[in-house]
Amino acid sequence: MRKTNIKELAKILNFSVATVSKALRDSHEISEQTKKKVLEAAKEFNYTPNPYASSLRRKRSKTIAVILPEVADNFFSLAINGIQSIAEKKGYHVLIYLSHENFVIEQSFVEDCRSGRVDGLLISVTSETQNGAHIQKLLDEKLPVVFFDRELESIAAPKVITNDYECGFNSARLLLERGCQNIRFFSVSSDLAICSKRAEGFLAALAEAGLPNENAICYFSANDTHTHEHIKEVIANRGTVDGIVASVERLAIQTYLACHELGVQIPDELKVVAFSTVETAPILNPSLTTITQPAFEIGKNAADILFTLMEGKDYGYTKKPVIIPSVLVERKSTQNKTGA
């Protein structure tokens, strides 16, 4: 069966070409009933849109960029899936840039986005990023930008995040409720807003319990080898340290490896909580207590907002961040023997 073009499809449906085009792009101007009718006809009469031709007509690239600090963290893999679910629906390609936690690389990628090759940007900044001038340039040039997970509070752009402060507080409180008295917060940055908020919540729980917070926050580099040795040093010389909250997934994995090498028993000698979406958390030995972040939903919502901005609409997204709550899931890494 030969392919049908958009004019022929419009004639079959007795709609205007503009109506069919908008329906295929999932425009808010078209009713759900009309969209359904157009999609069913497109399938029946073998219509396949030509994204390249349509992008030339509208002077759009039909591509969005996503800048990530890493992909080893399961969070970002799930977030990409959420982004892709919206992009595919809109007929867009997704161009993924990996900054490797390097601010200079991030800057170069953002600069690349100014070339016109993308219609919008989704970004989660590096642990080194303090200045957002490079991102502000895009906003000044009217290129839509949405932060997800890792944001810059100084930049007035939409943000999709989770309830980091509450999660930091709840993770510390859980350890204290399980009998820990000397707990540490493992972080990758003192500048990232998500790490700062998690640390603030953690310290607030200590203050509420009347416990000292001296040396409670430990910072680690992006280098896995250095991180591993540093964590081993903290645990080996831990004194009475009996609980750890890992602010990111890789720090939790490195903590497990360090405990294995040092012969430290989790949870009997050291209890561990991690901000993580890792699917293997339930089958780790012992199973890992997690603050499970809604990674797919964060990516999906961020992409949804980006496309809304790209359509020329702004529902006040820059005024207040979209917050999607995380969930504390307790497993054996924080349980006492009676709860194991």
From TrEMBL:
Keywords: DNA-binding, Transcription, Transcription regulation. CDD domains: HTH_LacI (cd01392), PBP1_LacI_sugar_binding-like (cd06267). Gene3D superfamilies: 3.40.50.2300, lambda repressor-like DNA-binding domains (1.10.260.40). Coiled coil: none annotated. GO terms for molecular function: DNA-binding transcription factor activity; transcription cis-regulatory region binding. Residues 4-58 form the HTH lacI-type domain. PANTHER family: HTH-TYPE TRANSCRIPTIONAL REGULATOR GALS (PTHR30146:SF109), LACI-RELATED TRANSCRIPTIONAL REPRESSOR (PTHR30146). This is Substrate-binding domain-containing protein. The lineage of its organism: Bacteria, Pseudomonadati, Bacteroidota, Chitinophagia, Chitinophagales.
